[in-house]
Amino acid sequence: MTAHPDRPVDWAKVRLHVVTGKGGTGKSTVAAALALALATSGRNVLLCEVEGRQGIARMFDVDPLPYAERRIAKGAPDRDGRAGQVHALHIDAESALLEYLAMYYKLGRAGRALDRFGVIDFATTVAPGVRDVLLTGKVFEAVQRPRGTERGPSRGAITYDAVVLDAPPTGRIGQFLGVNSEVAGLAKVGPVKAQADKVMELLRSPRTAVHLVTILEEMPVQETSDGIAELRAAGLPVGGVVVNLVRPQVLGADALARVRDGALDPTAITADLGRAKVDVDARLVAALVEEAREHAVRRQLEDEQRERVAAEGLPTYELPRLAAGIDRGALVELAHSLRSQGMA
Amino acid sequence: MSTGSGAPHLDVDALLDDRGTQIIVCCGSGGVGKTTTSAALALRAAERGRRVVVLTIDPARRLAQAMGIEQLDNIPRPVPGLRPQSDGGGSLDAMMLDMKRTFDEVVESQASPEKAQQILANPFYVALSSSFAGTQEYMAMEKLGQLHRQAVADGSHDLIVVDTPPSRSALDFLDSPERLSSFLDGRLIRLLLAPARGPARLMSAGFSVVTGALAKVLGGQMLRDVQTFVTALDTLFGSFRQRAEQTFALLQAEGTAFLVVAAPEPDALREAAYFVDRLTDDRMPLAGLVVNRASPPTRTDLSAEEAIAAADRLWAGDSSSLTAGLLRLHADRVRILEREQHLCERFAAAHPQVATALVPAMAGDVHDLDGLRAIGDALARRP
After folding, report:
1. Which pTM does this prediction carry?
2. Chain B residues lying within 8 Å of A172, measured CB to CB
3. Of the CATH numbers 3.40.50.300, 3.10.580.10, 3.30.1490.20, 3.40.50.2300, which one belongs to the domain with range B12-184+239-300+353-380?
4. Domain A16-247+321-339 is in which class?
5. What ipTM was assigned to the predicted interfaces of this complex?
C-alpha cells in the first residue's frame, strides 16, 4: 500500500481508542496494529486487554503480561525510521479492585481479608457491573494520568499520548461501556458511583472513539450496524469501521466479471502459462479458472457487504487477510496500512 | 475431503443415529459458527428420525426467522419445512434462550408467591438476572436441565441439542453453575445474612471490616439491596446448589456428547484445546471436534512458490496479465490451506484421541433450512 504522508490523521484529538468487533473478526489484531500505528516518533501508547486471554503476549511473542505496564514493542517506524513505544497492560478485575482499595482506602491487609471472605470474588464476578467499572476504571486512570506528576497515585508512572483498549466483543460492548449507568442505579451513592460517573464522562467525550472491526460477511456486518446504533443511543462516540481480513484484490472489476461469467479464454491462459515456464495441461487451466470463479463469487458477496458498511457513513479502513497469519512483522505491516489510510 | 491432520474421523451420523445420544452440547469460542452447527446437527438428526429440540443462544436474525423462533419466549416451537428421510417420525422444535425469564421461572418455582415477588422486584436481582456475565451460561444449563426433565417425563423429545453462549473464556460455561451456587452458598452470604438472623456469634472483627469495606466500595444502598436479596433467597440456596449439581451430573452422563467447535485459526483452536483438556479432566463425554470455515481445498498441486514465480514472470511482460492474477490467487489459497492444515495437525498431535470433522466455508451466510442441510451434509461427509 502506498503512503499518503500529507493525509491528516482522522482521530488526532482522541486519547482513548476502544476497539470492539464480533468474535472471529480479529479485533485484537486490529487493536495491536492500531497501537503500533499510533506510536509514531516520540509518542507513548498503551495497549490494554481486559478479557484475561493474554492475547497481547501471544501476538507480540513475550511472556504473559502481569498487572503492570510493560514496554513490549517499538511502534511502526516513520519514513525516517523513527518510532515511539508501545506498552501493554493486562487488566484483571481482581487486581484492579485490590489496587483500588489500597489506593483510596489504604486497605492493604484488609483487602486480603476481603479475599478470604470471598468478597473479591463476589465483587468481581457476581456483583453486576462492578467488574466492568473496575476494568474501565483502570483504563480511565491511564488515560487521565497527569503528565510529569511526582505526587499522588500515579507517581513515577509513564504518561501516554494514546491508549488503545482491546474491548469485549460487539455483543457486549454497550453493556461493558454503558454498564456504569446500571451500577449507578444500584449503588445510588458511594465511591463506585463516583468512579463510574467519571469514567462515563471520559467515554462520552470527544477524547474517546469506539472503533468497530468487521469482516465482509453478513452477520458481522449486521452486528456492526447494530453496535453502531447501540453506541449512538448510549451517547458514546462512534469512531471508524475497520474492515479486516479482506481478500486479495489482484483481479479488477472487469476481470472478476469475466471470471464469474465463465468468459475466460483457456487457450490464452495456456499460452501465458507456457510462457511463464509452467508445466501446463488442460487440468491445470481448468483448476485455476475454477479457483478464480470461487474467488470471484466471494468477492461479489464482499462487495455487497462493503456497500452496507459504507452506508453507515463512518470513516472506513481496510486491512488485508495475510496468508501467512499474524506475527510481529505482520502487525507492523498492518500498522503501516492503517497509517497510510489516515486512521493513525 | 481429508482433514489431512491424522486425526480420527468424527462420524456425525453415527452420533445422531445412536438413540443413546440424548444431549449434544456444542461449545467453543465466539465467531466460530456454534449456533449454525447446533442448528444443522438438530435438523439433520430430525430428518433422520430423531425427535429433537434445539436450544440456541443468539441466532442470526434470518436464521431465527427461517426456524420460526423470532420471539424470545422461552418456549420450543416446531420448525416448519422438515424433509424427513425416513418414516421414523422425526420432529424438530427450536427455541431461543431468554435468560431473565429462565431465572425468573427458577425463582417462581422454588419460592412462595409472596417471596418470589419480593425477589423479582429486588434491584440487585434484576441486574443479576439480566446482566451478570455468567448468568447466560448458568441459565443455558438450567434450561437444558428443564428440557431434559420434561423430555424424560413426557417423551416429547429424544435428543436435545444445546448451543452455548460465547464465553469470555472456555471455562466460564462449565464453571458458572458452580460459581453461582458456591457464591449463593458461601461464606460471604452467611455473613450478609447474619444481621437478618440476629447478631450474636458471627459478629467479629472480620465481619465489620468486610461489611465496612463493602459499604465503602458499593455504597450502603447496594449493600442493603444485596442483603435483602440474599435474605429473600435464603430458602432457595439449597435448591440452587442441588440444581447445579444435577446439571453437572447430567453433563457427565453417558447420554451426553460434547462437540467442541472451532475455526482453523490459532485463537479458536487454542480455546478448543482448553475445552478438550477441561472436558477430559472433568470426565465429560467428548464426542469430537468440528472445524468450521475451513478453506476449500486446492484443485491442482501447483505449489505456491511455483505459482508466484510464474506470476512474476508474466507481470514483468504485462503488468495487467490476468493469468498472473489467477496464479497469485492460487498461491494465496495454497498458503492459507497449508497454514490451516498445520494448525489442525498441531492440534491433532496434542490431542490424538479427538475425532474431527472439517466443514468447508460456505460462500454466503446460512439463513434457511437448505443452507443448514448443506452444512449437515458437510459435517457428515466421510474423508
Report:
1. 0.89
2. 133
3. 3.40.50.300
4. alpha beta
5. 0.88
